Amino acid sequence: xxxxxxxxxxxxxxxxxxxxxxxxxxxxxxxxxxxxxxxxxxxxxxxxxxxxxxxxxxxxxxxxxxxxxxxxxxxxxxxxxxxxxxxxxxxxx
Length: 93
Prior knowledge:
Strand order of the largest sheet: 1-2
Helix content: over 70%
Number of strands: 2
Oligomer: single chain
Strand content: 5-15%
Shape: rod-shaped
Largest sheet: 2 strands, antiparallel
Order of helices and strands: EEH
Number of helices: 1
């Protein structure tokens, strides 16, 4: 087995090629995991923004529906008043 020295370690550890490749692979996997985490965070942020946008749209739709309901009830009350004028209850004429 051929050993590879680490120049950055003052104690000069010797590694076999297999150990060196395992370390390199572990470092590569760590970088891939970090990239995946960053992507997941970005996806989560985008999803959160979309949810907030949808919530705002739903709130706006609810507000418009409430306004329509109020207008409908006003018109319904006006129709009832007109019907009462046109056909007053018996005994009130």
